[in-house]
UniProtKB/TrEMBL annotation:
Annotated PANTHER family: NADH DEHYDROGENASE, NADH DEHYDROGENASE-LIKE PROTEIN RV1812C
Extent of Low complexity compositional bias: 463-475
Pfam family, one: Pyr_redox_2
Protein family: Belongs to the NADH dehydrogenase family.
Protein name: NAD(P)/FAD-dependent oxidoreductase
Gly residues: bias regions: 476-485
Chain ranges of the FAD/NAD(P)-binding domain: 28-356
Species, as recorded: Streptomyces beihaiensis
Amino acid sequence: MSEKRYEKGPGKGPEKGPEKEPTRETARILVVGGGYVGMYTALRLQKKLKPELRSGAARIVVITPDPYMTYQPFLPEAAAGSISPRHVVVPLRRVLGQCDVIVGEVKTVDHARRTATYTTLAARQEGAEPATLTYDELVLAPGSVSRTLPVPGLADHGIGFKTVEEAVGLRNHVIGQLDIASSTRDPAVRDAALTFVFVGGGYAGVEALGELEDMARYAARFYHNITADDLKWVLVEASDRILPEVGPEMGKYTIRELRGRNVDVRLKTRLESCENRVAVLSDGSRFPTRTVVWTAGVKPNPLLAATDLPLTDRGRLKCTARLTVDGAPGAWSAGDTAAVPDVTADQDGAHCAPNAQHALRQARTLGDNIAASLRGEPLVDYAHAYAGSVASLGLHKGVAHVYGRKLKGYPAWFMHRVYHLSRVPTLNRKARVLAEWTLSGLFKREIVSLGSLENPRAEFELAAGGVPPAGPSGDAPGGTPKGSS
């Protein structure tokens, strides 16, 4: 073991915050982010650095805004009610037992001085200044954020689909719209409630629409004055195809499948405005709607711009095939925040796609390389040929393009479930998800909306003489429009 690698670097003085300053022989590894790369890298480091962690020669600190990792491929099924939301997330404190997990947000990184500033929930409530944390090795994996455009009305009425909270909220919202439509005599209100516009034809948009349309179609049978044909679903995509990851042929099949379910698929079309609850498209179409779901891509986390690390013209970290940040010793990254060269590609200058398939495998190599670096051992390049893609379009429906083979319908849906069940972390979550799938095959779907969970104090505030807060999209708690009864 190289003793030099375990000495503290320059500029490491006392720090603010609850952490105890490590000894000079301790190498502190700071992992920023608890998503795919952050959690899996920390897991790998726990395994590879077990002797060092036990002796105190190494210490791993994970700073993440949420105390859990969200397995995003399961968000559509969580929105449809096929999986309980709590089984879509993995508690970091449970799986990262050898790490110090800090629920907070990193604000800046000064890698030249090996320092990072961060805030915690307590610090924000106390109005305290950001704390400073020193480190020896940095894993920067804060993830991505939704890429939005300056569309009028989007900030007021748009709904995202990137977190488990958004998935649950969208499910409650869709069922709430069915309740509104079934209880109004105003045809304009009814039509707007039963019109659902999804912007973005990638994985998130297509899978979310497919699962929710399937769920709403089933739920409509329990309303005496709503049929499945009354529901209007619109998918808006700016390019000339959807699901490019599964190839042109499967993309065209997906369009036929969705249109066969009365989904209005608009290609080469953009959302121009959604002010006043009216979705205006670039082709001149206008849809009065109470639901606009925005899934039109992601962009690098703004934290990257608050560092002194090199970025590409698209705002991602410049990385090497060994997952080090180019020209910044001691800095590492992977996943959708990193531009990692694809050594398996035929053309020069190609980079790995920023998807979960690469992120999971990169995290393994990243953990191995950090451990090797601390021990003075050689590093290895990340190399993985893209295996393919699978997508769910609702219960028993899907498309897949894996290892050159193209599947659709039930076989693709089954492969989608098998693949993601094998990838979701921890045996605990695998067992729970499998149990829920088994039970959902034996019993009917749940069609209950728990929209009031988004404002749990509303009823008490009203009873106490206060004014309850407005619900999502300006609605009163529970999805009921203000002023209606």
